[in-house]
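stage 2 :: seqdesign
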């Protein structure tokens, strides 16, 4: 299952639209005014599904993930010199990617592929393609992409 993740061109806060391959809306993501990044994920009917919230005052960037208001885990950047790495405390998943963090994969505890993320570089706004192996993992995979993109924006 593929999702197309596009940042809105005119937006005061982080706002994204996420589409299925056929062009229909899968999710909308709206940034909230907060200390650090706070991104709320909604279904097409406007029902809140999840939240990605940056923890402030930490040594390395850390994002907490909430599904339906319940804590689901966190993703934090690890200190490395060259290859960016993220520690995921959720589902036993791991992120493995390239040096620029534009193309990476999310793998399960047994090394099985959960999602492949690639960034399309010739667009006006950040645009990612998220290829999810199992549809039930789409929301969590989207939350990881949001957290990694927010961390990169904070760093830049």
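stage 2 :: out
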């Amino acid at each position: 299952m593929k999702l197309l993740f596009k940042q809105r061109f005119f937006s005061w806060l982080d706002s994204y639209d996420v589409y299925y391959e056929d062009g229909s809306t899968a999710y909308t993501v709206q940034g909230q005014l907060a200390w650090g990044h706070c991104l709320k994920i909604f279904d097409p009917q406007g029902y809140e599904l999840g939240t990605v919230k940056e923890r402030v005052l930490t040594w390395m960037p850390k994002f907490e993930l909430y599904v339906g208001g319940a804590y689901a885990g966190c993703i934090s950047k690890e200190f490395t010199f060259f290859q960016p790495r993220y520690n995921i405390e959720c589902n036993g998943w791991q992120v493995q990617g390239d040096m620029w963090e534009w193309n990476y994969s999310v793998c399960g505890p047994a090394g099985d592929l959960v999602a492949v993320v690639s960034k399309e570089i010739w667009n006006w706004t950040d645009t990612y393609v998220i290829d999810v192996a199992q549809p039930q993992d789409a929301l969590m995979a989207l939350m990881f992409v949001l957290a990694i993109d927010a961390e990169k924006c904070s760093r830049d």
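stage 3 :: structure notes
- The mean pLDDT is 81.
- The first strand starts at residue 2 and ends at 7.
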